[in-house]
């Protein structure tokens, strides 16, 4: 096996294999039964999930997926694969240079992390850099990736050498990419009266039990505001995507937008920095305010450009160990 072959595995959350009720039900069952995602007693939650949540939500969620489904499959999977291809383009084949293999995987659904790790190893990669596409660490997202890697190691005879990037909430190329995306949006569409940084939410109880996600989101927001030279009155931070009746991280994005509209703000630019690529629909307008979604295209490109630095660092550490 060549000594200079390295692997990069980009890991996203996952999505249904098909935009059907059955496909969505299968995905929701795998996703929501993970104790990292829902921290309720398993027997109780199993009954709630299979007796109420899936029967009531699967068909509606399937219709939403079908409305945005792409010819090549789930948008999340398609965009993640395109990001992997862009990263691979950062490492052209050169004589004497390490060979870098790039793949993508999903925590839930497919392609599975274990399958892609096995594929990279079969292709000759002895060191693998695994990058969860969640800049801010949370036990509910990146923590679940660590669980998969731990199970993989537990069952392996020849344990793979895997380096996991835990978080990059204030990684300079990441912040620069976010800032460039905002500026590009402002150049093309004009600047709104406020910039709203809307992060994906998690239950408040998770933060109370020690999840550092809120502080990492705050660090990203402050770094982006500094990069854009924003005054404190120029931007807001909030959380979206509540589920169930329990309290989630606040302030909620919907409440923040309502408050801004009631205060006379008529235009808000929204950026969602919690994922490198995700399924989302542009927020629509309301009666008193206009919301515009900042483009992520430049962020994806800049993220791909910043990966070689991380890969070379991991490879250097591996060579030093050997």
CATH A-level architecture of the largest domain: 3-Layer(aba) Sandwich
User: Percent range for helical residues?
Assistant: 40-55%
- CATH class value of the largest domain: Alpha Beta
The major pleated sheet works out as: 4 strands, parallel
In order across it, which strands form the biggest sheet? Answer: 2-1-3-4
* Helix/strand order: EHHHEHEHEHEHHEHEEH
**Rg computed from alpha carbons, rounded to a whole number of angstroms:** 20 Å
Morphology call = globular
Strand percentage, roughly? Answer: 5-15%
User: Which assembly state applies to the chains in this document?
Assistant: single chain
- Count the helices. How many? 10
Mean pLDDT: 86
Comma- or semicolon-separated keywords:
single chain; 322 residues; alpha/beta; four-stranded parallel β-sheet; 10 helices
Describe, in plain words, how this protein is organized in 3D.
It is a single chain. The protein is built from ten helices and eight strands. The protein is an alpha/beta fold and 322 residues long. It has two domains: 5-168 and 301-321, Rossmann fold (3-Layer(aba) Sandwich), CATH 3.40.50.1400; 172-296, Rossmann fold (3-Layer(aba) Sandwich). α6 (172-189) packs across α8 (213-227) and α6 runs antiparallel to α10 (297-321). It is globular, with a radius of gyration of 20 Å. Mean pLDDT is 86; it is low at 279-291, 293-305 and 314-322.
């Amino acid at each position: 096996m060549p000594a200079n072959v390295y692997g990069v595995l980009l890991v996203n959350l996952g999505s249904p294999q098909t935009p059907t009720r059955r496909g969505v039900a299968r995905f929701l069952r795998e996703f929501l039964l993970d104790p990292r995602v829902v921290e309720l007693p398993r027997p109780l939650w199993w009954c709630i999930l299979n007796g109420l949540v899936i029967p009531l939500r699967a068909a509606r969620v399937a219709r939403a997926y079908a409305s945005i489904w792409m010819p090549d499959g789930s948008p999340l999977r398609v965009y993640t694969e395109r990001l992997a291809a862009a990263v691979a383009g950062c490492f052209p084949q050169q004589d004497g240079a390490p060979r870098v293999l790039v793949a993508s995987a999903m925590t839930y659904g497919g392609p599975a992390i274990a399958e892609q790790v096995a594929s990279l190893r079969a292709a000759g990669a002895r060191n693998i850099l695994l990058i969860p596409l969640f800049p801010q660490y949370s036990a509910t997202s990146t923590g679940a990736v660590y669980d998969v890697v731990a199970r993989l190691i537990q069952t392996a005879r020849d344990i793979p050498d895997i380096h996991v990037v835990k978080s990059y909430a204030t990684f300079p190329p990441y912040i620069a990419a976010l800032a460039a995306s905002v500026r590009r949006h402002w150049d093309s569409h004009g600047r709104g009266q406020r910039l709203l940084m809307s992060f994906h939410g998690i239950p408040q109880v998770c933060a109370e039990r020690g999840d550092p996600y809120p502080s990492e989101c705050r660090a990203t927001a402050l770094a982006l505001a500094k990069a854009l030279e924003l005054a404190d009155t120029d931007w807001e931070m909030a959380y979206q995507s509540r589920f169930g009746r329990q309290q989630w991280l606040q302030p909620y994005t919907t409440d923040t937008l309502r408050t801004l509209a009631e205060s006379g703000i008529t235009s808000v630019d929204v950026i969602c920095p919690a994922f490198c690529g995700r399924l989302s629909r542009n927020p629509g307008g309301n009666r008193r305010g206009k919301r515009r979604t900042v483009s992520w295209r430049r962020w994806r490109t800049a993220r791909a450009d910043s990966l070689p630095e991380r890969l070379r660092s991991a490879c250097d550490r591996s060579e030093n160990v050997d």
